[in-house]
Amino acid sequence: MKKNNFKVTVYILILTLLSSCNNKSQPDAYGNFTDDATTVSAESAGKLIKYNIIEGKEYKKGDTIAIIDTMQLYLKKKVLLAGIKTIYAKVENVNSQISILKEQLNSLLVNQKRIKKMLNDSAATQKQFDDINSQIKITKQKINNIKIQSNSVLNEKNSAEAQIKQIDNLISKNIIVNPVRGTVLNNFVKQSEFVAPGKPLYNIQDINTLTLKAYVSETQLSNIKLNKKVKIEVDVLKGTQTLSGTIYWINDKAEFTPKQIQTKDERQNLVYAVKIKVPNKNGMLKIGMPANIMF
CA-to-CA distance for 90 and 96, rounded, in angstroms? Predict the structure, then answer.
């Protein structure tokens, strides 16, 4: 009799455990931590004379990462700087000529007034007055001609200065600065290699916070909203680890269910993508790792 009671007790315990397992709450959605890296590319062509990227190393925003050979640009700038000195000398010469002619014009205008007064007093001839007027006209024409020449020289000067600014801009593009703080995920080139505009050099991502992308059905949308805190479960060596995340993006357009179903209800044809920010404490989370989400 006691043996039978013991069997009943064991049977009840087994049923209780099974029931407990069956009643365990299921995740509302499933997702994976996505690659949200920034790809840094070259903006100009040339040889990498300096390149110190190391995969897995963290870099700060503003760190100088690479330098592309700028020797040809430097030589071109040197030629322009030498030429612009000659242009500046032309500008000074033109301004000096204009200054001298203006002084002559002022002197002629004073003489014009004097001769006109003398002509009125019959102390000068009409020819003297006509001669001074002719000299004034010629001097004004010389000033206008030199001003035209001055404008041409100034245009030459402005063009040379613009070319120097353009070269400075190209040189600055040959100095590659890290755009964001983060850890280098992949490195695509090596020092001394030739790179071209648009060629990817490396990609970098802040792995202190990762993005978890999941898909939810239309019926679940009422349970989620932006900035809502959600529970995240990830598999670890000794079972599961529960973390906290924040919804920061909900797609307003539905899309067809991905081949790898990542929703609670696999029968839904259309789903909505959701992105969740999850703090990566101690670097435990990895890109591509699956996770369960509870809203």
Answer: 10
> With 60 as the cut, is the pLDDT of residue 262 above it?
no
Q: How far is the C-alpha of 171 from the C-alpha of 208, rounded, in Å?
A: 34
The structural architecture, per CATH, of the domain 39-68+176-201 is Beta Barrel (2.40)
| Tokens of residue 83, six digits | 């030429």
Cα 245 to Cα 248: distance, rounded to the nearest angstrom: 9
Q: What share of the chain is helix, strand, coil (3-state, %, to 5)?
A: 45, 30, 25
Name every residue whose Cβ is closer than 8 Å to that of residue 102 and which is 6 or more positions away in sequence: 143
Q: Name beta bridge partners: 235.
A: 240
pLDDT in tens, 106-148: 999 998 998 888 888 888 889 988 998 999 999 898 888 888 8
- 26-37+206-294: in CATH 3.90.1170.10: no
What's the number of CA atoms in the CB half-sphere (13 Å) around residue 231? 10
**Which residues on neighbouring strands pair with residue 255, listed in sequence order?**
271
